[in-house]
Amino acid sequence: MALFVLSLLVLGLSALLALIVRRHDRLAMLAGSAGAIVGGLLGLGPAMVAALGYPVAPFAMGWPLPGAAIHLEFDALSGLFLLPTLLLSVLAALYGAEYLRSYQGSGRLGPAWCCFNVLVLSMALVLTARNAVLFLVAWETMALVSFGLVVLDHERPESREAGWLYMVATHLGTAFLLVMFAIMGERAGSYDFGAIQALGHQAGTVVGVPVLGHAHGAALPASLLFILALVGFGAKAGIMPLHVWLPEAHPAAPSHVSALMSGVMIKTGVYGLLRTLTLLDGAQAWWGWLLVAIGVASGIMGVLYALAQHDIKRLLAYHSVENIGIITLGLGLGVLGLAHGADRLATLGFAGALLHVINHALFKGLLFLGAGSVAHASGTRDLEHLGGLLRRMPWTGGTFLVGAAAISGLPPLNGFISEMLIYLGAFGSLAEPGPVGMSVAALATLAGLALIGGLALACFAKAFGIVFLGEPRSEHAAHAHESGWPMRLPMVVLAVFCALIGLLPLQVVPRLAPAVTVASGLHADAVAGALGGTLGTLRGVTLIAGLAMLLTALLAGLRRGLLSGRQVGTSPTWDCGYLRPTPRMQYTASGFAQPFTRFFRGFLCTRLEVLRPAGLFPAQARLATATPDPFQERLFGPLFRASAQTLSHLRGLQHGRIQTYLCYIVLALLVLILWKLR
Amino acid sequence: MLCDRPLPLLAALLLAPLLLGVINRTKAIFAGRRGQPLLQAYFDLIKLLRKSATYSHTTTWVFRAGPVIGLAAVVSALALMPLGGMPATVAFPGDLLLFAYLLALQRFLTVAAALDTGSSFEGMGASREVLFSALAEPALFLSLAALVRETGCLSLTALVEAVAVRTWLVQGPALGLVTVALFVVLLAENARIPVDDPNTHLELTMIHEVMVLDHSGPDFAFILYAAALKLWLFAALTASLVFPVRTGNAWADGAATVAAIGVAGVAVGMVESVLARLRLVRVPEMLVGATALAGVAVVLVLR
Fold first, then answer.
1. String of b and e for B5-43 (b: at least 16 CB within 10 Å)?
2. Is A130 helix (H, G, I), strand (E, B) or coil?
3. Do B72 and A552 touch (CB under 8 A)?
4. Residue B189 — φ and ψ, nearest 5°?
5. How does residue A619 score in pLDDT terms, banded at 50, 70 and 90?
């Protein structure tokens, strides 16, 4: 634990240092990135130890704040979430050291690095805090500093707008959490997670909760707390329809921050939900169904919106919604398994979800770093202006291909393993007759995951194909260049991890057992047994992956042998006899996605702006497509406009006269005193 | 998990191109022609393997890797496919997932290689391919789910073995629906009429063929061979369900299933002879229909 506290100190102090030396760009950069790298590496050790299920001493310290205490503790669940968080933070910091160079001279490097290091620090605190007040303070710090990073380019109006949207979304979420923890703390008499958990176990399936204050003793079921947690943490995780901030905020931030936000920060929402589940003993079946339904909806809609995007970072952000959907699906099956006493389903659901948390951090981090490298080199994020970058940026392109295949769930990479665990859970519960509700949820999972997989493949075929293959579609892309090693190395490391987890599932999956035990509350033997049941499958997968690689090598050798000595020619691409192809004749990203936007038009509402060619000698024609988020346009937009209009009357209270403000304070005090004396 | 049963794999590797010949012969008979030799696909493969190759300036290593990894993925998937009562080379619980995802891997690489040429035609084909196969995926998985529910087995070998004549008597309607759904998936995944016409000569209307326009020589031979193997895969799965000959003698079962695969080829040929191609915008509807059939089948077995 001392090592972890040291790592937190390093992160905090380097953040402070970066702010102090903000006038000197180089120093600020050095302090920030070195601090994040050293701090992250220091923390990785304890995180690994904890994730493997070994005990780590807790750290406790008083804090002169009502109800609060600095109580940090590691269990396997915290460790499992901390591992990808710290790893990605270290790599993102290294990447950022080169990526942020273009900001030199703007005076923003100091604040940017300060925010970055505090973001890492606050995420680590969120994942280890065992006191509700400390948790909420860390949670809010995380939101605030990431807001600072989203609006780093604050002179661009879309950045400011994205930051604003993010701020509102995250605070609304926190409001729900505040209520939830207040209810829990009030009931347990302490804001310590241990006390809350003890209460949950004592009360059995229902946590008796008095409605605010001691007067009424009405018992509210644990379901209320679950719903509060789902909304509050779901807003951060980006489940549908609370995802609207995600595709705005993630692209606006610098790419290494996008990677961190999309790869691990939204996972704190998943962590929060899981932690709450451990606090609320006694899962109910309908929670599981709700989670499965949300998972299927988020997964399918997320990938559909992603398909329709032209901006590569927006596309990736929507894909995070999809992957959160897959994680939620796994959690849903897990909760359903717990509710029905099906240990195998519960274990596989939770294990799949947890492994997908790690996997998504790896490949989404990799893809955002790759997208950043592309944007850095070509100056544009618009797919329609890119193309042919694999020749110009072989490292970025190669690693992006690995990430794209991994996120599509293709073997032999890591995405396949986590999705397979969820699939196995669903298939397994179908194979044995059980409650119909469970079978229906399993079927929804199977059909949903299959469709999500197919659509994700389409989406990443488009993202990789349009950006990296073919000919450059603009001058920007034609003059792109490979990034330097501080940007390349993190991508290579992440790609290697993607491949390793995919090729060595036998080494990885059994090690999830401690974290699954904590998350599910099942007996350790039951978890180990259920995970052990997948070993045969994993061995088979490894065998076939090995066979496929061996065959690839053999066939490549055969091809080389056949072609050696023969004359291998080159020619232009075949275009039906027309031999002057131009890059503009290539298929576009919008064209590639058009069959999808057409078939799923009921969900997507893609807008077309067409100027048709007219007359005998058509002079100009134009086509523009845009797919705005329907939830934002039709649900939240009108809702917030209406509430702004209604609440605008209250603006009269806010006018800047200090005398009146003092009057408010006096009045408020009087009311409080009267209420207390009553 | 056993690895000492290479027979179904060998049978597929040797006989798959013959299946194409059966289909073409059926179509020729329907059209009143003599048709190409039954072994034409083998001649084509040999001819292509002896040729040199030409590459577009635009292409990168992705284009060259596509056919190689694609064929390797399909052969690996073949190792999981039993031949009726004859167990697959490799079998383990959950291998049906790996089977489906290996085919997805092959598709991803074919599509990437197509986009690598920068040709608008190949982009068009790639876009259609990914849409149709994304919609075929739920149909395949729901069909498999119905079979898993009925047999209680998670491995293709065990699952196919468990389907017997008795299963048809008990769960006839459900199995019938699954068969139809799987047959539609077979047609869609293998570029057959009414989804795609393997004989068309107009690039604008092609799907699979247009994606491989720029491949030549041994690369193209790999692609054709992989396509033949993929057709065999789906035909073997469907045929093992429809003709559940389970004598207990692996050899007899295997031989019966090979014959049944031939019948499946004839069926494909007949469909191609009597049906016209669907308009491209209608294909998704057909695939959603197949998903619905599979869904009904699952409801029937869940009952």
1. bebbbebbbebbbbbbbbbbbbbeeeeeeebeeeebbbe
2. coil
3. yes
4. -75, -20
5. confident
Q: Which residues pair with A571 in a beta bridge?
A: B56
Alpha carbon distance A343, B192 (integer Å): 44
User: How many other C-beta atoms are found inside a 10 Å radius of the C-beta of residue A282?
Assistant: 17
What is the pLDDT at residue A205? 39
| CB neighbours of residue A194 within 10 Å | 15
- CB hemisphere CA count around A112 (13 angstroms): 32
- Over residues A167-177, the mean pLDDT reads 92
Give the span between the Cα atoms of A602 and A400, in whole angstroms. Answer: 31
Interaxial angle between packed helices B120-151 and A589-599, expressed in degrees from 0 to 180 and rounded to the nearest 10? 40
Spatial separation of the C-alpha atoms in residues B120 and B115, rounded to whole Å: 9
Give the tokens for residue A339: 């509710």
The DSSP line for A489-517 is HHHHHHHHHHHHHHH-HHHHGGGGHHHHH
CA angle, residues B294, B295, B298, in degrees to nearest 5? 90
Angle of the A436-468 helix axis to the A312-340 helix axis, nearest 10 = 160
Determine which of A282-286, A598-602, B19-23, B296-300 has the lowest per-residue pLDDT on average: A282-286
How far is residue A610 CA from its own chain's centroid?
36
Tokens of B199: 């004989």
Q: Where are the alpha helices (DSSP H) in A308-435?
A: 312-340, 343-378, 389-392, 394-407, 414-431
Q: How confident is the model at residue A206 (pLDDT cuts 50, 70, 90)?
A: very low
Instruction: Supply A124's token pair.
Output: 């680590």
Q: Does A411 touch chain B (CB under 8 A)?
A: yes
The count of other CB atoms within 10 Å of the CB of residue A311 is 18
Distance CA B90, CA A536 (A): 12
CB A70 within 8 A of CB A59: yes
What Rg value do the Cα atoms of chain B yield, rounded?
19
Cα-Cα-Cα-Cα torsion B82, B84, B87, B90, nearest 10 degrees, comes to: 10
| SS3 assignment, position A592 | helix
ipTM of the complex: 0.95
Q: Which residue has the tokens 């634990």?
A: A1
Give the CA count within 13 Å in the CB-facing half-sphere of A97: 23
- Torsion sign over Cα B270, B275, B276, B282: negative
Tokens of A531: 């995970």
Mark which residues 441-480 of A lie under 8 Å from B by CB. 442-443, 446-447, 449-451, 453-455, 457-458, 460-462, 464-466, 469-471
Find tokens 């032209």 and name the residue.
Answer: A310
- pLDDT at residue number A200: 64
The full set of domain ranges for chain B reads 7-302
Query: How far is A196 from A232, CA to CA, in rounded Å?
Result: 18
Residues of A in contact with B97 (CB under 8 A): 420, 423-424, 427
Task: Give the distance, in angstroms, between the CA of residue B208 and the centroid of all CA atoms in the same chain.
Answer: 13
Measuring CA to CA, how many Å separate B90 from each of A548, B1, B75?
Answer: 13, 6, 12
Q: How many residues does chain A have?
A: 678
Please tell me if residue B28 touches chain A, with a CB cutoff of 8 Å: no
Which residues, including other chains, have CB under 8 Å from residue A637's CB and lie 6 or more apart? none
The answer to whether the beta carbons of residues A33 and A118 sit under 8 Å apart is no
pLDDT exceeds cutoff 90 at B112: yes
Contact (CB, 8 A) for B299 and B217: no
Answer yes or no: do A465 and B116 touch at CB < 8 A.
yes
Cis peptide before A490 (omega within 30 of 0): no
Beta strand spans in A617-674 (E):
622-626
Q: Enumerate the β-bridge partners of residue A609.
A: A624
Q: What is the pLDDT of residue A21?
A: 87
CB A367 within 8 A of CB A400: yes
A401: chain B residues, CB-CB within 8 Å: 62, 112
